[in-house]
Design goal:
This protein is α/β, with parallel strands linked by helices. It has ten helices and 15 strands.
């Protein structure tokens, strides 16, 4: 049988192993993708360390996939070999639960997650449910499209559903893998964009990405700085730091929303009075469906939003993962096949 290279984890907490496997065949409602690039996301730690219940090992990580359709199952009519496609966190849905029947597929009670419920993109090929596949515009390179399949869609989809209008003040906490995209999307959506980070060295980058104001949390109080600007209609919390996230609630304008997409295991510490007095809200946001991914990619192509990436060959997946986990990556590490 034809063979392929893949990088797998054999047990929770195990090392990355470069192996050869048989190239899998797609089922009736599946497609096989020849992978050209796969982004490395912080959520890959769930597979690496076995933090998500029910993962079967060995497992191939990776849910920021870009490539081309290589083969389609017998029941697949909307995808053909050669089409440029991507796959993100959302790896399929059941179509029959109450949320699917409402068309809210991202909340499917039986949702499949790429690289959690089936092997992911640290490989030459991947087989995925057809409903999880998104078309990639022809003029968007695979290595730039891959991070948009998770980091990009999470930021774009949360911002466009946050309730802010053009001209509203939107603050982005963190200038990292999510934040550097959040600043770009907020600016291109017409928001007054404020970036919050630590260190004056980040000021030029924040403004280059589209922020009109940079707040250095190391030298000034972000809440006071936001209130001097009138308060934020939305604060997009991309940094995985619950203490920093919690401290920003008082930087919201009346009726404002703290939108949390940075995943931290620590609880938020916010009092009911902080929310009630200004009719403020806190909301989390998952990524989105394949259709949301297509709209993210289209908007990014039209407006010039692009991830800043570091490229690594598949064989250096462990090095790329460590670069991401250490925070040294500027700003997304991408495996290219």
């Amino acid at each position: 049988m034809p063979r392929m290279k893949a990088v797998q984890i054999s047990k929770p907490g195990g090392n990355f192993e470069l192996v050869e496997r048989n190239i899998p065949d797609p089922g009736r409602a599946q497609v096989r993708i020849k992978i050209e690039a796969c982004g490395i996301c912080h959520s890959d730690v769930l597979v690496k360390e076995g933090l998500f219940p029910g993962i079967q090992y060995p497992r191939v990580p990776g849910h920021e996939i870009a490539g081309r359709i290589d083969a389609a199952g017998a029941d697949v009519t909307n995808w053909k070999p050669g089409q440029r496609v991507g796959v993100g966190w959302h790896g399929g849905h059941c179509f029959t639960c109450e949320f699917c029947r409402r068309g809210d597929f991202i909340l499917c009670r039986n949702e499949k997650i790429t690289a959690i419920h089936f092997d992911g993109g640290y490989a030459d090929y991947v087989v995925v449910p057809a409903e999880a596949v998104a078309a990639i515009p022809d003029d968007l390179p695979a290595a730039e499209a891959a991070p948009l399949m998770c980091a990009g869609i999470t930021v774009f989809n949360s911002l466009r559903n946050a309730g802010a209008r053009s001209g509203d003040l939107v603050a982005v906490l963190g200038i990292g893998g999510l934040g550097h995209l959040g600043i770009q999307y907020a600016r291109q959506m017409g928001f007054r964009t404020v970036a919050i980070g630590r260190g004056q060295d980040k000021d030029p980058l924040a403004r280059k990405l589209g922020a009109s104001v940079y707040i250095d949390g190391g030298t000034e109080n972000p809440v006071e700085a936001l209130q001097k600007l009138g308060g934020a209609h939305v604060i997009l919390a991309t940094a995985p730091d619950s203490k920093s996230i919690s401290s920003l609630v008082d930087g919201l304008a009346p009726g404002g929303k703290l939108l949390v997409i940075g995943v931290s295991p620590e609880p938020l510490t916010i009092s009911p009075l902080q929310l009630i007095s200004g009719r403020k809200a806190i909301q989390g946001w998952p990524s989105g469906t394949a259709k949301d991914s297509e709209e993210t990619l289209a908007f990014s192509t039209q407006t010039g939003v692009r991830p800043m990436i570091e490229r690594y060959p598949l064989e250096k997946a462990a090095e790329a993962y460590e670069q991401m986990m250490s925070g040294r990556a500027r700003f997304r590490a991408v495996l290219t096949m």
